[in-house]
Design brief:
Distance between the termini: 103 Å
Largest sheet: none
Helix content: over 70%
Structural class: mainly alpha
Strand content: under 5%
Shape: globular
Number of strands: 0
Number of helices: 12
Length: 312
Amino acid sequence: MGVQTQTLWEQPPKLALSEVEGAVLEAETDPAKSARRARRRALILPREHGAWGLLLVPMITGAGVAFRASAYFTPFLLLLTTALALFWLRTPLESLLGTSAMRAQSSEEYRTVKSFVMGLGAIAAVALGALLWTGRNAELWPLGAAVLAAFAGQALLKKLGRRARMLSEVVGTIGLTASAPAAYYVITGKFNAIAWMLWLANILFAGDQIHYVQLRLHTATAEGFRAKLTRGWDFAAGQAVMTAVLTIACMTGLLPKFASLAFAPLLFRGWFYFIQKPGPLRVRRLGWGELAHAVAFCVLFIATISLQRPVQ
């Protein structure tokens, strides 16, 4: 009876200890798994979330204007696929080559990154090949060369450090916004004044957005009109230059007069910041606000162009 009692009392502690060890091991491995998943996403997914908008907003405006004259959807779909694949390809390719802060280190990471590079490269090659098959869409060649030159210039400027950061982003914007004339061209088959107008309008819009976000980040602690203007005088000058460029473009007929209304919310937001009451910077709210401005710009720009300008 004494032996039986000892046996009954020995077994439960073993089971309890095993359960505790398992719970501790699971608690230790879960954060490690989460960290590995987060690192894997950082290796293959683009980290510049705003750049997606800089690529897609011009493409949407270009397509929205072009579809008034033509209904060729297939070339646009091929261009969209090529642009998205190439844009996405940059992040895993940099991780594979070790040219970015995030680099593939383990053999598992190398396999994952390499599979994404090969897959995205194949998608881009097939879509671009179909787009340029038998000499079609030949104007994309010089446009593509201009885009590559812009990105090369951006890479060189980044090496100069923080003092050239803003300029490098503006130069990169020239390359990303080329999706507007590209979309217009593959749908209509024309690279005319409207295509150049689309490119100019999207450069102005995207450049102002980038400058405004930098302004908010760098003047988060500034209070009062004078303090904000002292730190953000370059943004105020940029707003004035953009207003002058829009005025000249409208007066010369490059841009339909009412199309400038698409920039009105952007200009109001920029000037109003200097006089609004100070408050804490909410980065997520700032991002959603800029997304709303992008949607408003697309809708207003396409609508005003459609109402005024006959397709040439």
